[in-house]
């Protein structure tokens, strides 16, 4: 875990729920394949230090198939094909950011380094078994991660992307102060729901407008565009939707 997060979350590690979670994960690793690999579980914390967070994008479960999850919600490493949800995220970026060019890669690391916290509600999953690590303690921990952002000593407001009802319920439960922070709500980018309000939501543009007005800064979403995909297929996928 990155130093800034480890310091801020230190009290969580000694709590009974976290000890139980560790025991559960040890047993899972002994009996099953678990994603992401161990050194990627907290990659979000190393790529996006606490004081650099400008935007929080909350997913649900890590991708549960081979070669997909690497610790950032919605993100996959090459040569993995773009999942349907990520294709729709790229579609909306194309609409919101005139200079954005479609990437071939699904690796969202450049945006994580730019201040976008790609956080999943659960940080691990059993291979090929969606939601298999739900309600084992991760939700309590990731609630603490979000509270840590809300309680930063600098008091700076951030943008929260609430895509889908689960994310919206979490942010509502945490009682985010919407005078201080911006919460952007819409349908999930999954191909099953993207056409019910995700596509056309303007969230990336709205986030930058708010950040510029509030703090005089923006997220450079075009950092993903260094390798344009001339022939990439951005049509919605009908394949099984990874719950991320």
Strand pairing plus helix content: what structural class?
alpha/beta
Structural domain tally: 1
The SSE string, one letter per element, is HHHEHEHHEEHEHEH
Task: Determine Rg (CA atoms, Å).
Answer: 17 Å
Number of strands: 6
Question: Strand sequence of the main sheet, in spatial order?
Answer: 3-2-5-6
Overall residue-averaged pLDDT value? 91
- Uncertain runs are 228-244
Biggest beta-sheet profile: 4 strands, parallel
Instruction: Please give the count of helices.
Output: 9
Could you please describe the fold and organization of this structure?
The strands form two sheets. The protein has a four-stranded parallel sheet with strand order 3-2-5-6. The chain has a two-stranded antiparallel ribbon with strand order 1-4. The protein has 244 residues and is of the alpha/beta class. The protein has a single domain, classed as Uracil-DNA Glycosylase, subunit E, CATH 3.40.470. The protein is globular and about 50 Å long.
């Amino acid at each position: 875990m990155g130093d800034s997060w480890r310091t801020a979350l230190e009290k969580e590690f000694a709590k009974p729920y976290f000890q139980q979670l560790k025991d559960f994960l040890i047993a899972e690793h002994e009996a099953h394949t678990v994603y992401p690999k161990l050194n990627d579980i907290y990659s979000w914390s190393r790529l996006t230090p606490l004081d650099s967070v400008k935007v929080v994008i909350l997913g649900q479960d890590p991708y549960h198939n081979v070669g997909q999850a690497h610790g950032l919600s919605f993100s996959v490493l090459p040569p993995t094909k773009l999942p349907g949800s990520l294709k729709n995220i790229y579609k909306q970026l194309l609409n919101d950011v005139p200079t954005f060019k479609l990437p071939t890669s699904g690796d969202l690391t450049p945006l994580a380094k730019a201040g976008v916290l790609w956080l999943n509600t659960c940080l691990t999953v059993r291979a090929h078994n969606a939601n298999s690590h739900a309600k084992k303690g991760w939700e309590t921990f990731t609630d603490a991660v979000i509270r840590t952002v809300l309680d930063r000593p600098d008091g700076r407001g951030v943008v929260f992307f609430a895509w889908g009802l689960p994310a919206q319920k979490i942010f509502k439960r945490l009682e985010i102060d919407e005078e201080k922070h911006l919460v952007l709500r819409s349908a999930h980018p999954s191909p099953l729901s993207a056409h019910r309000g995700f596509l056309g939501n303007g969230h990336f543009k709205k986030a930058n407008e708010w950040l510029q007005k509030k703090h005089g800064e923006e997220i450079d979403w075009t950092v993903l565009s260094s390798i344009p995909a001339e022939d990439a297929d951005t049509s919605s996928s009908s394949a099984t939707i990874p719950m991320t």
